[in-house]
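Input (structure):
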């Protein structure tokens, strides 16, 4: 069997749901299980409704109601579907009323609130599939075996879920029924609704795929897969046919937000391939994420990414030489100020590292200045090359040649312990130019047309 996950843009309205139905129909022979996000911008609209109830004591679910009820009408679904949705809309309205009266929105309540988006979408999508003669059954995630801890907004599934998922789904699949399951949500042992945090719906799909021993997990988005570069920077960016889990995780961390690294962890445990596909362009091959690449796919560079608005911190002290515990003092200063480090490079007398943009570093700089000379530079960007670091000499020679040709000064370089990334720092204003130059060098001249 396979797992097919569809994101919000793939379910944005009646037209997209019909399109999704055709994609699913084409793969019925592979015994799919579906995992769905909320329709379109529903999650954002739910949070906006809560904010309105909290700050202005005004209850309004008009946008949310109109989208879902109108979609039911547009899809010409039977009255039963509307009867399933209206009690949920009433439940949502009551929740918002409670938020406005108590004037408080806890993480537990927030999880309950945003769960409505997925609960609406699976009921409408399953009803549509039934209307086109596909035996589909809508399920909330807890009915499919998802039991989590009580870490609201970032819950982790209980180990028992791995056993419960096949127990819940195999009987349906054996009976020729297509399960349509809410992504992103679960319930804790007390019966409270929880959410799985960033990349939650993708993670729901990969957990089901891993637990079921699926042939693959398909993640349907609005892009052709993982691209060689950000298409907003490089018009000629093209899909990467295949990457490893490690490469995909590094790309995500350094700015290519196709799949969150957490979403890939379940499939990494079981070596289950993940296929990223475009629901707007289903004939495109997409990108397959696997444990090990075949020899023919081992190009020196797989993809490029960049992240702007980075802060560079240079720490220099002759006291570093031969002094045990110096770096401990440096990093304990970061810990006290709640600042996390991205990249690091060091020599005998200096350490350079990068941080995501931080509002204020004054107190931090004063603390650090007690043990070293500190220079903080803002407005920097990380450019990351993902590829075969076993060929780092070749990769770096070409990268520095590109930078020199562009008149760009590389201010720091770091090779990740993962052995799949080389990152370096340039000015924010130069990042786009560098990525374009590197892409041309590694992947060739732009294609005609």
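Output (sequence):
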């Amino acid at each position: 069997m396979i797992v097919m996950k569809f994101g919000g843009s793939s379910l944005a309205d009646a037209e997209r749901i019909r399109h999704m139905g055709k994609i699913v129909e084409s793969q019925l022979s592979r015994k799919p299980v579906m995992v769905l996000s909320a329709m379109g911008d529903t999650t954002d609209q739910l949070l906006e409704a809560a904010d309105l109830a909290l700050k202005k004591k005004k209850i309004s679910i008009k946008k949310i109601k109109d989208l879902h009820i109108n979609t039911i009408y547009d899809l010409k679904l039977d009255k039963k579907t509307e009867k399933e949705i209206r009690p949920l809309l009433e439940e949502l309205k009551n929740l918002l009323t409670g938020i406005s009266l108590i004037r408080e929105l806890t993480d537990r309540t927030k999880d309950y609130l945003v769960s409505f988006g997925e609960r609406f979408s699976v009921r409408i999508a399953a009803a549509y599939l039934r209307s086109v003669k596909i035996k589909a059954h809508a399920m909330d995630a807890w009915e499919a075996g998802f039991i989590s801890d009580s870490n609201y907004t970032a819950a982790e599934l209980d180990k028992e879920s791995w056993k419960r998922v096949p127990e819940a789904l195999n009987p349906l699949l054996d009976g020729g029924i297509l399960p349509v399951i809410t992504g992103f949500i679960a319930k804790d042992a007390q019966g409270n609704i929880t959410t799985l945090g960033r990349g939650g719906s993708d993670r729901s799909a990969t957990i089901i795929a891993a637990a079921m021993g699926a042939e693959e997990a398909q993640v349907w988005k609005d892009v052709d897969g993982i691209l060689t570069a950000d298409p907003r920077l490089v018009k000629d960016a093209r899909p990467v046919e295949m990457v490893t889990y490690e490469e995909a995780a590094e790309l995500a961390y350094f700015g290519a937000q196709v799949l969150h690294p957490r979403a890939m962890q379940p499939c990494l445990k079981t070596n289950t391939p993940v296929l990223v596909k475009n629901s707007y362009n289903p004939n495109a091959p997409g990108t397959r994420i696997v444990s090990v690449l075949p020899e023919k796919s081992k190009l020196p560079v797989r993809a490029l990414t960049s992240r702007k608005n980075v802060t560079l911190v240079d720490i220099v002290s002759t006291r570093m030489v031969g002094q045990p515990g110096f770096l401990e003092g440096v990093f304990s200063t970061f810990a006290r100020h709640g600042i996390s480090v991205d990249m690091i490079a060091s020599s005998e007398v200096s350490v350079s590292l990068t941080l995501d943009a931080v509002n204020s570093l004054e107190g931090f700089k004063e603390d650090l200045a007690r043990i070293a000379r500190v220079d903080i530079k803002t407005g920097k960007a990380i450019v990351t090359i993902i590829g075969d670091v076993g060929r780092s000499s070749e990769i770096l020679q070409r990268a520095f040649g590109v930078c020199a040709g562009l008149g760009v000064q590389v201010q720091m370089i770091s090779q990740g312990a993962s052995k799949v990334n080389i990152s370096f720092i340039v000015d924010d204003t130069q990042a786009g130019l560098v990525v374009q130059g590197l892409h041309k060098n590694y992947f060739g001249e732009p294609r005609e047309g």
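Notes: The CA atoms of residues 154 and 197 lie 4 Å apart. Residues 302-443 form a domain with the VC0802-like fold (CATH 3.30.2130.10).
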